[in-house]
Amino acid sequence: MLERFSVVIYDKKSITVAFLKKYWDYISLICLVCLTTVLFVFGTSASAGKKVTLKSLKTLEEKAIFLRKEKLGSQCEHLKALHQNRKAVKPGDWLHEHHEDGQSFATYVKERPNGPDKVKKFIYIQLIGGFTKDQSKILDQTIEYMQLSFGLSVKKLAAFPLSKIPANARRTRRGDPRLNNDYEQLYTKFIMNKVLLPNRPKDAVALIGFTGTDLYPDPNWNFVFGIASLRQRIGLWSIYRNGNPSKGPKEFIQCLRRTIGTAIHETGHILGMQHCIAYECLMCGSNSRQESDSRELYYCPSCLQKLTWNTKVSPATRFKKLIKLCNKLKLDREEKFFTKSLELLKNKNSK
After folding, report:
1. Which of 62, 65, 141, 346 is the most buried (most CB within 10 A)?
2. Distance (Å, whole) CA 276 – CA 302
3. Residue 43 pLDDT
């Protein structure tokens, strides 16, 4: 029985070997076609199902388009019609010198950014050193703008005297760019870590140092307008390079615009917003005074969506209050834009 079975097996093997030898070329071709078909079908399916993300996009413009297409809340979605796409990047611009991936609203929410809650309710301003009468006026008006822009109360703390800042956290520079004489600068790392952070109130959404003295963030840097730490909820900026508000009405408005711009931009960072790359927006990075001055004093729809989600302020209510304030402060461009924004929202709601 075993012998017979063995013979049968041998015969089958012989037949199989003979068959393969005779038709091997045809079999190979059929297998190759089948394998190629399977790979194509599954490969196409995998590609079609792959989710497009900011990180998967290569160019800055692709990322900007992706961000502008993101679906926002109804009010911010309507506002897209009024906002200008980011202009082409030129040599010397922030985006020409720095890599930015951008930040979608969905990503912002997932990152669980700093914001008001049951404990944290206020923005605090820590004065550092003295101010002239007009500089103090600029500061007070900036605080007004901040309160309405963020929908949060802003409290001003007593001034921290410059005499308490040690010599190793100060330096003297030659040739004041305004007065052509020597001028003093303060080291931002010392003020951030030794003055602001230890004295940050428990109920602070943000603590922001404000000074009339020039700043430098590193011994190798010439200066910096302002700086902020997202994790530590602290920021610091200077009015020093914003112009002389006592020179005349035009210079006062220029200084005010620059001071408000820095305040809203840096506080936006403390609330978790990254630099904007999609629109012409106050949250865009700036590499020079010229680039900074080109920014208007308002957020794009995407950044406004982040702000209103975080602080729970209504866009329409915010616009109403800012229109009145801008009229009072003679910020004509912003008053006109906020009026257009409010009218657009009213028209959309009436339809």
Report:
1. 141
2. 9
3. 47
Q: pTM of the entire structure?
A: 0.81
Look up residue 346 and give its two tokens: 């009213």
CA 317 from chain center: how many Å? 23
Strand partners, 185: 171, 214
The better pLDDT of the pair 288, 18 is held by 288
Place of tokens 């393969």: 20
Nearest to 159, CA basis, from 122, 135, 197, 129: 129
Give the bridge partners for 234, in sequence order.
207, 229
CB distance 210 to 195 below 8 Å: no
How many other C-beta atoms can be found within 10 angstroms of the C-beta atom of residue 162?
Answer: 15
pLDDT digits over 54-81, tens only?
666 779 999 999 999 999 999 999 999 9
Task: Assign 200 to helix, strand or coil.
Answer: coil
What's the CA gap between 318 and 137, in Å, rounded? 23
H helices present in 160-221, as ranges:
188-190
Q: Which two tokens stand for residue 181?
A: 């004489």
Q: 3-state class of 231 per DSSP?
A: coil
Cβ(54)–Cβ(67) below 8 Å: yes
Let me know if 282 is exposed, middle or buried by CB neighbors in 10 A (0-12, 13-18, 19+): buried
pLDDT of residue 47: 42
